[in-house]
Amino acid sequence: MHRTRDTPRSLGRLPSILAVIVSGLVLAGCATLSPSNSQDSETTMTENPTDASRANFAAARERMEYILPLLQAEAATAGLDMPLERLAEISCLRPEIEAQQEQTSWIGQLAAVSTDSAQANAVVDAVSAALASEGWELTRDDDPSNDPYTPRYINYTKDGINVSAKYKVGVTDSVEVFARTQCTDHPRDHQMVRSTLDPGYGKSSKYYPDGE
Known about the structure:
Layout: H1 8-33, H2 39-46, H3 49-77, E1 84-91, E2 103-113, H4 117-133, E3 137-141, E4 152-158, E5 161-168, E6 174-181, E7 184-185
Antiparallel strand pairs: 1-2, 2-6, 2-7, 3-4, 4-5, 5-6
C-alpha cells in the first residue's frame, strides 16, 4: 500500500490554511451576533415591554370604569344587586416596603349575598354573556364538581385585565365579580389613585391624593 508523505512544502502551507479557516469562523460568528442580522436584537430595539405594560396599565382604569358598571347592571337584570366594593390601584408589594407605589395593580370588585343557587347561576351566566359580547376571551369555566364550595367559577381576559365571577357556598352564599390587572413596575414618584366610583373615594388615605 502506497502512503504519501508530507513534504516540507505542504507542511509550510498548513498555518496559512488554518488561518483562513479560523478567520471564516470568526466572521460567521460576528454575522450571527450582529444586531443588524439578529431578529431578536431588532425586536428588542423596536419594542419595549415596559412601555407597553405601562400603556395598558394607564388605560386599565377607564376600561374597568366601563366594564364593572356594565356587569353590575347585568347582575341586577338577573335578579341580584351587586354593590361596587372596590375600584382602585393597590400595591403589589409587601406591607413593610415603604415605597408601595413602585409596583401596583388595578382591582375592581362587585359582591352580594345570594338567596339561592338558581339566582347565583343566573347572575354568573349574565356576567359571562356580557363579557363574551364585549369581546372578552373565556379562559376558565369550572365544572361544579371540582370544588363543592365554589359551584361556579368563570374567568375572562382582555387588554391585560382578568375578570372572574364566582358563586361561593358557605355560611352565607354569595356571588363575586373580581377584576384585576397584572402588577406593573413604576418609578419612585408614581402616585397611586382610585376611581371616583370607588366607595372610599375622597376619604382620608395615606396612599391616595383624593383623601387629602
